Amino acid sequence: MEHFPTIHTNFWDAVIAIPVIMLITQLLKKFFHIKPIFVPMIALMIGLIMSIFISHRHDLLAGIFMGWFYGYSAIGSFASLKTSLNAYRQKQLNKTKSRS
Q1: Predicted pLDDT of residue 23
Q2: How many Cβ atoms are within 10 Å of 36's Cβ, its own excluded?
Q3: CB 57: neighbour CB atoms within 10 A?
Q4: Is residue 51 within 8 Å of residue 66, measured between CB atoms?
Q5: In sequence order, what DSSP letters do the residues of 21-76 get, joined into one string?
Q6: What is the pLDDT of residue 48?
Q7: Is 6 domain-assigned?
Q8: Residue 6: per-residue pLDDT
Q9: Are 63 and 47 a contacting pair, CB within 8 Å?
Q10: Does residue 7 lie in a domain region?
């Protein structure tokens, strides 16, 4: 019977990898004018590359597994941040309109 790999999350996983992926995807989008539809795929690829070659380089299965989490966490974090920022801006806009 095959067992699932033991995967330990650490400081790298929680605090560094996801923001780094978000930063890299935004820089790529800005400098290479990548269409927004391709950004999630790029974030996933960067997450897989970082996980397989940096954080879990001795265990391919763990690298692939955690790479998916890195990429999709970056995608979700960016979407959440963007939604929250848009809601805040809309609220501020409504406040200024109601004062006028």
Answers
A1: 96
A2: 7
A3: 11
A4: yes
A5: HHHHHHHHHHHH---GGGHHHHHHHHHHHHIIIIITTT-HHHHHHHHHHHHHHHHH
A6: 96
A7: no
A8: 67
A9: no
A10: no
Tell me the residue range of the domain where 21 lies: 14-99
As given in the structure block, the two tokens for residue 45 are 């690829």
Inter-CA distances, 19 with 5, 16, 70, 77, Å: 25, 6, 9, 9
Q: How far apart are CA 13 and CA 32, in angstroms?
A: 27
Cα separation, 52 vs 65, in Å, equals: 9
Tally of structural domains, the chain: 1
Residue 31 belongs to some domain of the structure: yes
* Token code pair at residue 92: 């501020």
CB neighbourhood size of 60 (10 A): 11
For residue 71 the two structure tokens come to: 């990429």
Specify the length of the chain in residues. Answer: 100
Structural domain contains residue 45: yes
Task: Print pLDDT tens along the chain (100 aa).
Answer: 567 766 666 777 768 899 999 999 999 999 999 998 999 999 999 999 999 999 888 889 989 999 999 999 999 999 999 999 999 999 998 888 887 6
